[in-house]
Design brief:
14 helices; monooxygenase; eight-stranded mixed beta sheet; FAD
Length: 404
């Protein structure tokens, strides 16, 4: 049997690790199950906007992250047709000061390593690698959770179970078997290249977003500027589950050449030797995230297209709100101890659903706008230039200014 105030979190991705830290900060004991034997890099770079970096800083991660993250000077929107900059959205320290927290770009492995180190240093968190969540049943303590650690089947009781086990969530499969991710018809090619391998004219101090017909390309520095991260999004019907199928460099090079992309973009594409492909799946908007003493979080609840760069950001926000709601009713300093766990989890889902659905919609809209072609693409370019970088950036304030 587990100690009182124990919560089990299934999945130790960015969402699960942040949730463990946020719950532990409210006085809970946390068991964090992760099926992988080691937490390894899943993907390459990640943009973390102030709404997310603020939560991580509040959890005490500033020291571990600031030395590894880069503050990009701007997001520069580039035309795949002309190779020229269309508009520059200024970030840098000024944008961070306005929002009260930095805009970071970081290697996922660096973020995951910082979170794991913080989790391992916390006496109330038991991170169990190589342990796969299998099933659960309601019991007198809340939930009884069955999991398999290597060959051994184990059972633990907890106040609540949080499914942070990603877009192919087993917890969601048990709770809501008909809620399934849908294929978007798009795939992401991801790769990195040593910055010093690029010609001087390709040097990057910020994020570049290249827009072209039926495709876009995002490029930014990571790992203290040593590496450059590339994500190319193209239409395709290849739809394998998972995160790391290799891609043939010649295939992606040919696509961008055939579509007439400017040489500066193709130079970046051609510089990457090892590509990985991800088929982009998303959960439908407005799903149900909680039942009884169990709740979903991050991609398990609302896996979205990555075109607002907010999937991890929303998982991090979820973690802060979930810990706040559970902390108020069952934490070390509970102010509303009469509230059952199930009601606290419902408050969490209610607090999150409208905002997350708005971000899911924005991500889809962005994808449509980035991939326009023909005269309407020219009209888009002119409209963006007329609006200007400052005003385009201000349109994101509702995302960046969020607080738990
Ligand atoms: C191309 C691309 C670019 C992106 N760029 C950005 C960006 O710039 N900014 C941003 O904020 N977001 C971005 N995202 C989104 C972001 O990567 C995801 O939203 C985020 O990683 C989700 O985190 P998670 O913890 O919810 O899920 P995951 O990262 O999928 O973690 C789930 C964890 O659960 C584990 N697990 C699964 N099943 C079980 C089980 N049965 N038992 C135990 N453990 C289990 C898995 O091994 C995994 O470790 C991008 C996504 C893509 C595809």
């Amino acid at each position: 049997m587990s100690a009182p105030r124990t919560i089990i979190v299934a999945g130790a991705g960015i969402g699960g690790l942040t949730t463990s830290l946020a719950l532990a900060a409210k006085g809970f004991r946390v068991i964090n199950l992760e099926k992988a034997e080691r937490l390894e890099e899943a993907g390459a770079g990640l943009q973390l906007s102030p709404n997310a970096s603020r939560v991580l800083i509040d959890l005490g991660l500033a020291g571990r992250l600031a030395q590894r993250a880069i503050v990009p000077d701007a997001v520069t929107v580039m035309s795949a047709r002309t190779g020229r900059a269309l508009v520059r959205l200024p970030l840098g320290d000024a944008a961070g000061a306005r929002a009260g927290a930095p805009y970071w770009v970081i290697h996922r492995a660096d973020l995951q390593a910082a979170l794991e180190a913080q989790v391992n240093a916390h006496p109330s968190i038991d991170l169990r690698l190589g342990c796969r969540f299998e099933d659960f049943a309601n019991d007198v303590h809340g939930v009884s959770i069955g999991h398999r650690c290597r060959a051994e089947r184990r059972q633990d009781s907890a106040l609540a179970l949080i499914g942070a086990d990603g877009i192919w969530s087993t917890v969601r499969g048990k709770l809501f078997p008909t809620a399934q991710p849908r294929f978007s018809g798009l795939i992401a090619w991801r790769g990195t290249v040593e910055a010093k391998a690029l010609p001087q004219r390709a040097a990057l101090a910020g994020v570049q977003l290249w827009m072209g017909p039926d495709a876009h390309l995002v490029v930014y520095p990571i790992s203290g500027g040593r590496l450059v991260n590339l994500v190319a999004i193209v239409a395709d019907d290849w739809r394998r589950e998972g995160w790391s199928a290799p891609g043939d460099a010649r295939d992606i090079q040919r696509r961008f050449a055939a579509a007439g992309w400017a040489s500066a973009a193709r130079l970046l594409i051609d510089s990457v030797e090892n590509w990985k492909r991800w088929a982009l799946f998303a959960m439908p908007d407005g799903g149900v995230w909680t039942a009884g003493s169990t709740a979903l979080l991050g991609d398990a609840a609302h896996g979205m297209l990555p075109f607002a760069a907010q999937g991890a950001g929303m998982a991090i926000e979820d973690a802060a709100v979930l810990a706040k709601c559970l902390g108020e009713s069952h934490g070390a300093d509970a102010s509303n101890a009469a509230l059952p766990v199930a009601a606290s989890l419902q408050r969490y889902a209610q607090a999150r659903s409208a905002r997350v659905a708005r971000v899911q919609r924005l991500a889809r809209q962005n994808g449509g706008i980035y991939h326009l072609k023909g005269p309407i693409a020219l009209a888009r370019d002119l409209a963006m230039q007329a609006l200007g970088g400052e005003r385009l950036l201000a349109r994101q304030n509702w995302i960046y200014d969020w607080r738990a």
